[in-house]
Amino acid sequence: MTPVFQTCVDPGKGNCHQACIAALLDLELSQVPNLILFGDHEWWNVYYYFFYALGWQLEGTKYFKEGKIPKLEDSINGHFDACVPSRTFEGKTHAVVIDVNGIVVHDPNPNQLWLGENVIETGNLKSWTIFSKLGDREETND
């Protein structure tokens, strides 16, 4: 995981998610689509197919309120794309990279307000994305 910082921090227009994806995949920011540009309904399709093209399957999103915690087998090299409340803009969310213990290992905002916090212990983790390498999981009919 190579830290990549967001270039836009305006509320509702920030590219923190784009920066987290770039960091997770060791890519340049310009190599990752800025999901905020695709609207509320289309961004997930872009996100899904972008990862698929790179050999990753998005298995879905887990929500901390359900009492779930991140599992190593659902990560990209031990890291997750996670959602926390914004500390810059009230009522907004922010994307960060966490490890399997819930520690923010990368905050793409240059202010770094989340860096080092255990968002599981503080209850600030909203959700994280579950990944698997294509072909690593067996198909089930559950």
Folded structure, characterized:
The chain is α+β, with helices and mostly antiparallel strands and 142 residues long. The chain has one domain: Cathepsin B, Chain A (Alpha-Beta Complex), CATH 3.90.70. The chain contains two helices and five strands. Strand 3 and strand 4 form a beta hairpin. The radius of gyration is 14 Å and the shape is globular. The model has no long low-confidence stretch (mean pLDDT 88).
Summarize this structure briefly.
With 142 residues, this protein is an alpha+beta fold. The chain has helices at 16-24, 39-53, and strands at residues 56-63, 79-85, 93-99, 104-106, 127-133. The chain has a five-stranded antiparallel β-sheet with strand order 1-5-2-3-4, covered by helices on one side.
**What is the CATH first-level class name?**
Alpha Beta
State the order of secondary-structure elements, H for helix, E for strand.
Answer: HHEEEEE
Gyration radius, in Å: 14 Å
How many helical stretches? 2
CATH fold naming: Cathepsin B, Chain A
Sheet/helix structural class: alpha+beta
What spatial form do the alpha-carbon principal axes imply?
globular
Layout of helices and strands:
Elements: H1 16-24, H2 39-53, E1 56-63, E2 79-85, E3 93-99, E4 104-106, E5 127-133
Antiparallel strand pairs: 1-5, 2-3, 2-5, 3-4
